[in-house]
Design brief:
about 260 residues, alpha+beta, 5 helices, 2 domains, about 35% helix, 10 strands, single chain, ten-stranded antiparallel sheet
Length: about 260
């Protein structure tokens, strides 16, 4: 009697084990398609997001200077034009040829009495080959000329950083505004992707990062940028930026930049 009961229990245990194994197999099989479908959906979302964003903080002047010497000379031009005359309008022009870089930086702003006194004192140090300062038609003007060699690694890195941070609108993309891909375009012999940006319909939440960074009440960015395909750096751009500070003061800034083969 005991042997019969033991055999029955063994049969029950074996049947349960087999049933459990089959159930686990079925669950695993049914879950794989869902997992793969979920992965495909996430990949599609990431691809869509990447098409509507670009790295507005990486400019081709950095990429080209950090890479090998170019096959032919390049010219970089970056301009920042301020509507407020008390702010500095800036113009960077740079020429890259093999292992040398020549940079001319010009700035202009409405001169204050302090500016007049300072420039009057410093005018005696003017050197047309490196630096000139002057007052023209009520505006203060300064021009700086610098020459860099790739053999001086520290100065070479500083040149790339100063051009990118001083002459481009990298700070406008702190909050990664949504942009729209406008299509492929060959620009000055480079294969690029054109993007358009317009933040006029963005919410205050969308703009929060830059508003906090710059202590603003509101701002808007509009214009276009062209991103080099193989390097994913900003090759050319034309952007208008409007801001209103918390004290109600409004100003406009126009940014434009390009890289051309000489």
């Amino acid at each position: 009697m005991r042997k019969t009961e033991t055999q029955k229990l063994r049969h029950v245990y074996t049947a349960a084990l087999v049933a459990g194994t089959i159930l686990l197999t079925l669950v695993a099989c049914s879950s794989k398609p869902k997992s793969k479908a979920r992965e495909r959906t996430q990949t599609q979302l990431k691809e869509t997001a990447s098409q509507n964003h670009f790295d507005g903080g990486t400019y081709c002047v950095q990429t080209f200077l950090q890479g090998p010497p170019p096959a032919q000379p390049l010219h970089f031009s970056y301009k920042i034009v301020e509507s407020d005359p008390s702010l500095k309008t800036k113009d960077y022009e740079a020429d890259l040829a093999s292992d040398t870089l020549d940079v001319t930086y010009h700035e202009r702003w409405l001169a204050s009495d302090q500016d007049r006194a300072m420039i009057s004192d410093m005018r005696k140090f003017n050197d047309p080959k490196s630096v000139t300062r002057d007052i023209k038609d009520g505006y203060a003007e300064s021009t700086f000329i610098n020459h860099y060699s790739r053999s001086d690694a520290s100065q070479w890195r500083m040149a790339a950083t100063s051009l990118a941070q001083g002459g481009t609108p990298w700070n406008l993309f702190v909050s990664r505004p949504t942009v729209n891909r406008a299509g492929d375009e060959n620009l000055n012999g480079y294969d690029t992707v054109k993007y358009s940006v317009d933040t006029t319909h963005d919410t205050q939440t969308d703009k929060a990062a830059l508003m906090m960074f710059s202590k603003l009440k509101d701002y808007n960015i509009s214009g276009n940028a062209w991103v080099l395909k193989d390097a994913n750096c900003v090759l050319q751009y034309s952007l208008d930026y409007e801001q209103e500070s918390k004290d109600g003061k409004a100003s406009k800034t126009h940014y434009e930049g390009m890289v051309t083969k000489k």
